[in-house]
Amino acid sequence: MEVLKERQDLAAERIAQIAAEGLAKEGFDEYFRRMAAFLTLVEENRRFLEAGGLKTASLEELGERNHALYADILPENYDKSFGNPTFAVSKLGEDYGKLLCYLAKEIFATTIFCYTGNLEDVVIREEVFLEVYGAFCESLQETGELPGSDRIRQILYWFVSDYSEVERAKLVDQMVYPGGSASIRVLKEADLTDLRYLYGYGQYIGENELQIAKFLLAQPKETIDVMANTFTEGYRIGFELGGKDLSKKTSAELIYPIGFERMMKKAVENFAKIGLDVTGRDQSIATGYGPGTGYSVSPNRQYEFDHREDMALFLDKALVQRTVETLRAGFEARKDEAKKHAGPAVVEVFGQEDFDPVIKPEAPKMTEEQNGLGVELKAGMYEVQMSYIPHEERSFTIIAFPVPEIRKALPDDSEETYGKFFEEVIRINTLDYVKYRDIQATMIAALDQADYCEVKGMNGNCTDLRINLYKLKDPSKETIFENCVADVNIPVGEVFTSPVLEGTNGVLNVSRVFLEGLEYRDLTIRFENGMIQEYTCSNFENEQENLDFIRNNVLFKHKTLPIGEFAIGTNTTAYVVARKYGVQSKLPILIAEKTGPHFAVGDTCYFKSEDIAVYNPDGKEIVARDNSVSILRKTDPSKAYFQCHTDITIPYEELGELVAVKKDGERIPIIEKGRFVLPGTEELNRALDS
Predict the structure, then answer these.
(1) DSSP structural state of residue 462
(2) In Å, what is the CA distance from 113 to each residue of 42, 63, 117, 281, 429?
(3) I need a labelling partner for 347 at 20 to 30 A (CA). Which of 155, 487, 634, 650 fits?
(4) 215-236 per-position pLDDT tens digit
(5) Average pLDDT in the chain
């Protein structure tokens, strides 16, 4: 630690000097001065924290400090930020602009590391900044010219490669080792009546985080208990229904949004009662691993979108191998803890303003070869993780709640209306699973008789699909569809299966859908034998941009994907609540998938667990767990999986009919004109008819 502090002192001292120096190159001089000023600000905050500033400063001062650290990437300043590839390229040229924009993103990440006490991550980035600056100074002094962009690319390449081991080791430590996460320490030590604790994460703290913390603090204990108990009980039931032994596990990874600490403290108590301590991952919007423990609503989703393919600057076969190897080393060092790790428990949020991304030509973009390497990297990392935390021995749960920002979309922007809507979401998340279980069992009994299903749209929706289904050998003991109650995916409300790919053909269309926070307008996908053949949307005037948008964010760089799931959502209560409050477009996929029939492209719901017997509450085994792609795991595992699964839901008002068709041609209507017509399912229409 002393050596690390010495390195940090030397780096900070040198960075402070840059403001008094100058590069005789317009644009570059501004870049290095601004980045040095930011790192100096981070250093000042680090010393402030060391002196106990979180406990002595006022809430107002902490807010001002937080805003200053994120000011550069906030929407109102982003046009002039070197973290914006368009601005960076305009100032520095294409090659230097892209590279130094990437470096700016890494520098901005030091905010999080400063607050979470990860001094090494701060020092590493300070040193690479100084190395790049030194390369410019040296070249300009010796030749009067800028260093070659290849030289700068190499410095950054080795930064990414050399420190991969440090990064992966910390990632694994925090995931599986209780006590490894600074964010979990913030949670456990927080005095919830003193909102200064919110700034201990180092994440951006906006109105969403402040308001939800105040809102939940004001709720009665019974409300918080219901939220937390539903969350942790779903986790426990997931192990029970999956036939997995929870008693062998000692930790669960907690992923939650900042402001939900009151619910999370109760969740920690509940997990302790079933023998689990909690772990978490500290990270920033720069690190690219998705939400971590104590994450904030993004201060600028365009910033994240602009940097989504930054690895295009460096990704090659050697880097893929290096990343996978270092992840394996990280897990090997914590293999005992990993074996006892139970999996993630996740709280999602929804309700942010709609995001319509701008595709910038200046942002890095993967080549076709790199797309393949990216898929290989994702698959390799997943394989390593699953070898230490076997899929068949782990589980998870996910639940979602609205953030205060959704008030802008509600009938009136008032705390009272938000409170009522929040209560409705709690009601949706705690619906009577026994009632839904029994209704869905009736639906499954009809679907089990089918040879295939037909799904057709209405009201402008051009969906026309024929879904081929698994053929049962012993209907008395087997079933095609899983009866989904409130366990791993809260709330209740769907039956689902892995369709037979061969013979599954037609067009899937949705007028408007949000997938992973991105809006798709008039999304249309054509399938042939269960595989995607064509796709488009109407987001952009340029058709190639539409194709790239879907390829990157739905197909995740793959050339095609299979239909991995066919499901019928039954949670009409959620459907009606969303329309009552006018927030259909705000629903997370977790809830949206329960509000109509949906189709997942990618892996099946039984990803990597196809050989594990799964049973419905009635005791019947769900036998439709495989398809002709996933079964390739037995002969060619490299072609069996895609490491993605994206649900696309057709809302009831766009659904003309869903019919189960028997081998002899007899038709069993399930849904007609957006209403459930199968005898025994009429109860689902009560919410719709209200």
Answers:
(1) -
(2) 10, 18, 6, 12, 35
(3) 650
(4) 999 999 999 999 999 999 999 9
(5) 93
Number of H helices, E strands in the chain: 24, 20
Which of the 8 DSSP states describes residue 630? G
- State the pLDDT confidence band at 290, using cuts at 50, 70 and 90: low
Question: Measuring CA to CA, which residue among 394, 367, 381 is closest to residue 253?
Answer: 394
What percent of the chain lies above the pLDDT cut of 70? 99
How far apart (Å, rounded) are the C-alpha atoms in residues 183 and 188? 9
Query: What 3-state DSSP class applies to 594?
Result: coil
Token pair of 479 as six digits:
């079933």
Six token digits for residue 468: 């081929």
537 in helix, strand or coil? coil
DSSP line for 136-195: HHHHHHHHSSPPPHHHHHHHHHHHHHHTHHHHHHHHHHHHHSTT--HHHHHHHH--TTSG
Check residues 690 and 669 and name the one with the higher pLDDT. Answer: 669
Instruction: Identify the band that residue 285 occupies on the pLDDT scale cut at 50, 70 and 90.
Output: very low
Residue 233 to residue 398: CA distance in whole angstroms: 11
Token representation of residue 178:
């209780």
Alpha-carbon gap, residue 472 to 68, rounded angstroms = 62
Residue 111: other Cβ atoms inside 10 A: 24
Instruction: Specify the length of the chain in residues.
Output: 690
The region that residue 401 occupies, defined by phi over 0 for left and psi between -120 and 50 for alpha, beta otherwise, is beta
C-alpha 628, offset from chain centre: 28
pTM above 0.85, yes or no: yes
Instruction: State the Cα–Cα distance between residues 504 and 483, nearest whole angstrom.
Output: 22
Nearest to 202 by CA among 225, 187, 183, 177: 183
Write b or e for each residue in 426-460: b if 16 or more Cβ atoms lie within 10 A of its Cβ, otherwise e: eebbbbebeebbebbbebbebbbbbebbbbbbbee
Residue 324, SS3 per DSSP: helix
E-assigned strand segments in 105-147: none
Is 650 within 8 Å of 457 (Cβ atoms)?
Answer: yes
Task: Map residue 349 onto helix, strand or coil.
Answer: strand
Tell me the sheet residues that pair with 532: 527
Q: Any idea what DSSP says for residue 73? A: G
Q: If you search the block for the tokens 């139970």, which residue do you land on?
A: 342
